[in-house]
Amino acid sequence: MAQVVTRPQRFTPEEWKIAGKIKHKNAERDRAAAERLILESDRLDSETREQSDTTLEDVDKKIDQRLNDVKYWKKELESKLDDVFKEIDVLEAYKRRVEKAIEAIQEPLHIAQTCLANREKRYDIDLVHDNVQKELIKEVEIETGANALLIRLLEQVKEQLRLNRKAKYNLENDIKNKFNAESIDSHVQNLTLTSPSLYLKNGAAKIEPNSYTENQWENFSDVNIKNAEATRLNSVQLRNVVDSNLQQTANDMQRQIELTNRAIERRIWEEKDAKAKLEEQCKDVTKLIDNMEENIKNVEKAILDKENYLKLAHTRLDVRTNRPEIELVRDPAQYKMVKEVHEIEDSLRRLQERLNESLKKLKDLDRNKLLILKDIDVKTNTIRIDEAENFNGIRKSLKINQF
Prior knowledge:
The chain has 403 residues and is mainly alpha-helical. Helix content is 84%, strand content 0%. It has 4 helices and no strands. It has helices spanning 13-119, 131-190, 214-320, 332-394. The longest helix is centred in the first third of the chain and has 107 residues, at 13-119. It is rod-shaped, with a radius of gyration of 62 Å. It starts with 12 loop residues before the first helix and ends in a 9-residue tail after the last helix.
């Protein structure tokens, strides 16, 4: 099918002129608009550059101020950390003092308990609850109480050390964060428009939702410092308590040991005095026994002598019965010999009674001497325990030094 050819539009000279004018006018308007846009762009560039430079300068100042704040708080934290470090070292030394004091109490406590155990070897009348016993029991009570007190004190020191280390950890962690923040902000401060490491990142211009306000930031370090100082002051106060308790404990123990030693010395003197008196009494009894034995021998001899007299009298009387018949006279001689027999028999009776009394008294004296000797043995045993085993033995080197 044949295509229809359309002839181009034809314009008049007037239309051509008008079209030229319109194009010129539009071109002029576009040129003017472009010139205005260029001028405005130059002005905007100048304005934004000045604003950016001003803002950048302000940002640099803010970063510099921020670095100063970080350095200030870091310095404050480091100063407080140094105080806490020193306090931990000092309290560690106090902990060792308390541990050594607990260890030092064990020997005098063992000695006092051993002294009490030794005194249980006394017997008879000397197994008495005397002042030595009372002072030793009190000594054990004081040393046992001191041991329990220092154990509780040691637990308090350990707990305070834990709190001190916790405060130290909080300060160190805060300082570490401050150091990292200072490093980051120092790096940011050193960045310039010509730094080669600049880059663009979408979403960089935002406030992190988990960030904190400046007040929160300052309060965090301020609280750490205040808590660390309060912990340090508590530690100092506890050290004062430790000093006081250690001194009081040592004084109480030393004073009680001196009281116990004086009581032992007094008791030893009493025991030796009692023993000396018993020994003197034993000498007197021994002398009486010797005299009594001599007396018994004399009485027995007297009885034998009287028996000879009696035999003579009996023999004479018996022989005279052989007189014959009228010669068997009751003459004065007969009466006298009968009377002599009665006198001798009465003497023998009295001598026998005296002999019996003497024998009984000798038995009593022997028994008394045995009792005295036994009592001397009891006193000797007690003196050995109190003087040799206790006072001059295990208590000889007993001394409490200041803890």
